[in-house]
Amino acid sequence: MNAPQAAVLAVDGGSTKTDAVLVSAEGEVLGRVRVGPSNHQLVGIDAAMDTIGEAVADLTRTAGVDDDAIPLFPTGVYCLAGIDLPIDEARLAPAIAHRGWSHDDLLYNDTFAISRAGTTATWGVGVVCGTGMNCAATGPDGRSVRFPALAELSGDFAPGGSWLGLRALGLALRANDGRGQPTLLSDRVAAHFDLPDPETVLTGIYSGELSYNRIFELAEVLLNAANEGDQVAQGAAQFLADEVVAFATAAINRLDVAHLEVEVVLGGGVFDTAYEGLLSRVTDGIHANAPKAVIKRLGAPPVLGAALLGLDAIGATDAAKQRLRAAFTL
Questions:
Q1: From CA 261, how far away is CA 46, in angstroms rounded?
Q2: Which has the closest alpha carbon to 97: 112, 88, 82, 107?
Q3: Which long-range contacts (CB under 8 A, 24 or more apart) does 319-324 make?
Q4: Does the bond joining 71 to the residue before it have cis omega, within 30 degrees of 0?
Q5: Which of 66, 117, 156, 273 has a Cα-to-Cα distance from 101 of 20 to 30 A?
Q6: Do 89 and 109 contact (CB within 8 A), yes or no?
Q7: Count of H helices and E strands in the chain?
Q8: Degrees (nearest 5) of the Cα angle 11, 37, 242?
Q9: Strand locations in 47-95, DSSP E?
Q10: DSSP per-residue letters across 266-322
Q11: Residue 1 — very low, low, confident or very high, per pLDDT cuts 50/70/90?
Q12: Cβ-Cβ contacts under 8 Å for 5 (sequence gap 6 or more)
C-alpha cells in the first residue's frame, strides 16, 4: 500500500512560537513540529519566512517528501499573527510564494485558526485573549470579519493580558498613593517580583532592570485577586470582559447571525482562569445580543484550525475532518 500523500501544509504562526503540520486529504497527520516566532511585526518578514522554512524542512524530512520538487505541497494554509491589515497580506503573500512551499497559498490572521479549531461547523467566531486580543469570524455564507487589533491605535480599549497586567500595576500604585481604593494588588504585584512595594516595581520597569514584557505576568495576579473577591481587581477583569463582548458582538452583527446558534470560541491564556466572573460576564454579554450563541473554550491547539481550513479548501470529507480533529483534540 502506498503511503498517504501530504495534501495540506498548515501553519499557525505566533509571536512566541510557530506550529506546523502536514495532513493528508484523508485527515491523517503526517508530521508535526514547533519552532520559534514568525510574527513579521516583531521579527521582520525575512526572519518570519526563515522560521516557517525551518518548520517546513523538518516536516519534509519527517514525511519523506522530495524537497527538490517545487512546490512541495498542493495547499498551504498560513495563519499568522501580524496579518492585521490588507497591507500585511500584500507584503507576506509574495514572500511566501517565493519560497515555493505550496501551490495554493491561503493566508489568514491566526485568530481564524482559533475559530476553526473550536467550531463544529465551517463558520463561527473566534476571540483570542492572550498577551493581546483579537477577533475573527466567518459567516455561513462565507463572508469574513476581522479587526486590525493594533491596541489603542485601532481603538482597542482593553487589548488583552498585557493591558490587564499594566492595569494591575497601576491599581496597586494608585491604592498606595491615595488616588485609588485599597486592593490586594498593593501587596500581590510587588510580591510577584519579590520586591517590597509597587513603587519599586515601577522603578525597575522604568530603569530597565525589570523587563517591560514581564508586565503580562501580572494579568494572572489580577485575576487571582478578582477570584478572591477583590472588587478593584474584579472591576478591571470585567472591563476586559466587556471588550471581549464588544469584539464578538460586532462580528456577529456584521455577519447578520445574531439570530442563529453561532459558535463563539474563546482562546488564549487569559481565559484559563479560576475567576468565573470573567467568563460569565462574557457569556451574558454575548447572549444579550445573540441569545442562541454557543460560547465555548478552545479545547484544541490552534494549528488544528489551520489544518481544517486546508481540508475545507480542498473539499475533504467530513470523515477526514473528524479523523484530524480526533488526532488533535486535547
A1: 42
A2: 107
A3: 319/26, 319/27, 320/25, 320/26, 320/27, 321/27, 322/27, 323/26, 323/27, 323/28, 324/23, 324/27, 324/28, 324/29
A4: yes
A5: 117
A6: no
A7: 12, 10
A8: 85
A9: 73-80
A10: EESGGGS-S-HHHHHHHHHHHHHH-TT-EEEE--S-HHHHHHHHHHHHHT--HHHHH
A11: very low
A12: 24, 25
Looking at 101-257, list the stretches that DSSP marks H as alpha helix, in order from N- to C-terminal side.
110-118, 161-177, 185-192, 198-207, 218-227, 231-254
Distance between CA 321 and CA 304 in Å, rounded? Answer: 10
C-alpha cell at 58: 523538518
Question: pLDDT per residue over 246-272, tens digit each?
Answer: 999 999 999 999 999 999 999 999 999
Neighbouring C-beta atoms of residue 215, cutoff 10 Å: 22
Residues 6+ apart with CB under 8 A from 25: 4, 5, 7, 8, 311, 314, 316, 320
At 250, list the grid cell.
460586532
- The Cα 111–Cα 298 span in angstroms is 12
Please state, in angstroms and rounded to a whole number, the distance separating the CA atoms of residues 261 and 251.
14
From the CB of residue 190, how many other CB atoms can be counted at a distance below 10 Å? 20
When pLDDT is cut at 50, 70 and 90, the band that residue 201 belongs to is very high
Return the residue matching grid coordinates 501530504.
6
Give this prediction's pTM. Answer: 0.88
Q: Which value, in Å, is the radius of gyration of the alpha carbons in the chain?
A: 21
- CB-CB neighbours of 43 under 10 Å: 17
How far is it, in rounded angstroms, from Cα 201 to Cα 215? Answer: 10
* Distance (Å, whole) CA 215 – CA 170: 11
pLDDT digits (tens, 9 = 90+) for 291-315: 999 999 998 999 999 999 999 999 9
So what's the pLDDT on residue 12? 96
Nearest in space to 57 (alpha carbons), one of 107, 2, 18, 112: 18
CA 117 to each of CA 78, 91, 195, 311: distance values in angstroms, whole numbers, following the listed order: 14, 26, 41, 12
| Cell 485573549 belongs to residue | 129
Angle between helices 161-177 and 218-227 (to 10 degrees): 70
Partner residues linked to 138 by β-bridges: 124, 144
